[in-house]
Write a structure and sequence with these properties.
The chain is mostly helical. The protein is built from 15 helices and no strands.
């Protein structure tokens, strides 16, 4: 096991470095950089005293944009290894770690709620569809799951906002708090935030409910046809006990596969959903930073996501052996 873990960690580090190099190269090759945008703004504010070219050269020198891509990446990597990720260009030269820490909490909160909703909905639906295979219930759940898989997040979010916010006026259109938030008590503030999170959570949940329900149904069908399930039924065990005690454990394997993507998605935020609903989470911050060409923040964010992905995959491999004793490392 230790040899396996060391091998996976070394491979993960190599993937993270190569991935960071790709991200850095892509950002440096963007047609319009943050430095060029700032140079145009400073040129317009100088009333002709300084030319655009002079300002651009000074800014390129200041932000290290004169270095070739390999040299610039090597400098960034050297500083990152020491824990120095620099200051965000877009967010008022604040340290990128401070910007990240100030917004990650809302993304984690939203994704934790989303995960709980998904588990509560998907597992019972998948098991029910498998138990009633080819029935009307199974077909209805299948149609619902396929609809969830097929709906793009931006379309679903727009429809939900139009129906429940614009037409019915039941839920807020965007944001995390209302105008009267500061005048409310503790429970009132919690209720206000919860009300604003309903539509974003529904949007994120619907995107994953379909796939996870189908995974649960498919795996449960395979388990229900196994010999040991027939033996358990022949022994006179109740159907409830057969499903919950004997069959359900084996449905945990696809759930472990799903959980391997939970950690990155939880801390990575939801770029599209947070953008549409204007939730001040890390997804919205990262989106604004990337389209602005904020290299320090974009590099920290993408590297952090790659680290989380590798960690979650290693955890998933270990959990396979915990859930299913037949899984072992050669």
């Amino acid at each position: 096991m230790w040899k396996f873990l060391i091998r996976r960690i070394l491979l993960g580090l190599l993937i993270i470095v190569l991935g960071a190099l790709v991200v850095y190269t892509v950002i440096r090759c963007l047609p319009a950089s943050y430095v060029e945008k700032m140079a145009r703004q400073l040129t317009a504010g100088s009333n002709g005293r300084l030319s655009y070219k002079e300002i651009l050269e000074k800014l390129n020198e200041q932000y290290g944009m004169n270095d070739p891509v390999p040299v610039g990446f090597a400098k960034w990597l050297f500083n990152a290894i020491q824990g120095n990720f620099g200051n965000s260009w877009k967010y008022m030269e604040r340290p990128v770690t401070d910007v990240f820490a100030g917004s990650i909490g809302w993304s984690v909160l939203m994704n934790v709620i989303t995960f709980i909703v998904e588990i509560i909905v998907c597992i019972p639906l998948g098991i029910l569809a498998a138990r009633k295979q080819y029935s009307k219930t199974d077909y209805a759940i299948t149609v619902f799951a396929l609809a969830c898989i097929s709906l793009p997040s931006f379309y679903l979010a727009t429809v939900l906002k139009y129906v429940f916010s614009v037409k019915l006026g039941w839920l807020p259109l965007y944001g995390l708090t209302g105008d009267t938030y500061n005048t409310l008590g503790v429970m009132g503030k919690v209720g206000d935030i919860a009300k604003h999170l309903i539509l974003p959570v529904i949007t994120l949940s619907m995107l994953s409910i379909g796939g996870l329900t189908r995974y649960t149904r498919t795996n449960m069908l395979e388990v229900l046809n196994a010999d040991y399930i027939r033996t358990a039924r022949a022994k006179g065990l109740s159907e409830k006990k057969v499903i919950n005690k004997h069959a359900f454990r084996n449905t945990l394997i696809p759930l472990v596969s799903y959980l391997s993507y939970l950690l990155p998605s939880m801390f990575g935020g939801a770029l599209i959903t947070e953008q549409i609903f204007m939730i001040p989470g890390i997804g919205l911050k990262a989106y604004d930073a990337m389209i602005s060409g904020d290299i320090p923040f974009a590099m920290f964010y993408t590297t952090f996501m790659m680290v989380l992905t590798q960690v979650s995959l290693i955890i998933a491999d270990i959990m396979y052996a915990v859930v299913d004793p037949r899984v072992r490392v050669n």
